[in-house]
Amino acid sequence: MASWNWIPLEITYELLGWIAFASWAIALYPQIILNFRRKSVVGLNFDFVVLNLTKHSSYLIYNATLYFSSSVQNQYLNKFGFGQMIPVAANDVAFSIHAVLLTAFLLFQIAAYERGGQTISKISLLILSVVWLIAGVSTFNALPTHSWLWLISVFNYIAVFLTAIKYTPQAFMNFKRKNTDGFSIEFVLFDFSGGVANYAQMTVQSIDQNSWVNFHGNIGKILLSLISIFFDLIFMCQRFLLYPPRRAMISSETSKEKELFIKSVDHPMIPLKTIKEKESLIKSHDHPESENHV
Fold first, then answer.
1. What average pLDDT does the structure give for the chain?
2. CB within 8 A of 198, min separation 6: which ones?
3. What are the angstrom distances between the C-alpha of 51 and each of 103, 105, 207, 285?
4. Which residue windows are transmembrane per the record (predicted)?
5. Within 69-121, where are the H helices?
């Protein structure tokens, strides 16, 4: 197995890996906290959560097996060359374990909090059934020949496939509702940071080894990063450009009302009654609680 050629790049590799771990690990907490504060999971797509759990479970199987199993490592080196490095780091395993636990806790919140009549779609249940059927058949096929590298590669591709589709229900739900209320934007920002750091980590390893074998040796890790970045950019556009938070919209509408009132004052031909009505409307926007006490 190859070793690092330049210590600064090795340090950078480790640093980027743990930055990716921290970003992806922290990404799940804002949604959990948001659900807890609201005592509701309305706005969080359940399909996203169940697909995400299977994705993280599959990715954990791949990472943990390749990182800890010497026999699987030997199969990897036999295939890609003994001068290569194993493309899985400790931060990958740590992230997978952490992600499985937190996503499972999200499912607990879905069961415990207000759901607003939302359920897991039949399409997602069908996808999960097919995925686990493929995993089961692949396991039985690998047993006689001990093709463990091939088997965990199947789980790696499953993780990529589920990553490609898991974001779609949430993105479509935001589009359908024309808002992102209930879906944590902090999750998106941290997820985006993790994807960038993860891709950069693999790039640093390739530069040090003067080889891009680790990219196609662990194609799943690269695709997971790129797909996450792509969908995170979509979520950012939805949040900040297409469907800004309701508070910002209300504030904007109030400003427009104030502007109309000022223009009305500047034009004395407008009846006093109309001006007073607008002034009353503005006050009701600025101090809604005062009307409740009257």
1. 85
2. 16, 17, 20, 24, 221, 224, 225
3. 10, 14, 34, 42
4. 15-36, 48-68, 88-111, 123-142, 148-165, 185-202, 222-242
5. 70-80, 90-112
Best CA proximity match to 83, nearest among 217, 219, 256, 267: 217
Q: Please, where are the H alpha helices in the chain?
A: 7-38, 46-68, 70-80, 90-112, 122-145, 148-177, 185-209, 213-217, 219-237, 246-266, 272-286, 288-293
- Burial pattern 164-197, b for ≥16 Cβ within 10 A else e, equals ebbbebbbebbeeeebbebbbbebbbbbbbbbbb
| Mean pLDDT for the stretch of residues 209-221 | 85
Q: What is the pLDDT of residue 280?
A: 57
Q: What size, in residues, is the chain?
A: 294
Range of lowest pLDDT (1-5, 189-193, 272-276, 278-282):
272-276
Joined tokens for residue 16: 């980027």
Contact status, residue 94 vs residue 206, Cβ threshold 8 Å: no
Nearest to 222 by CA among 211, 212, 235, 232: 212
Name 44's Cβ contacts closer than 8 Å, sequence gap at least 6: 31, 35, 106, 110, 170, 182, 183
Separation of alpha carbons 124 and 166, rounded Å: 9
Q: What CA–CA distances, in Å, run from 20 to 192, 193, 274?
A: 9, 7, 58
- Give the residue carrying structure tokens 């797909």: 227
Contact indicator for 188, 239 with CB cutoff of 8 Å: yes
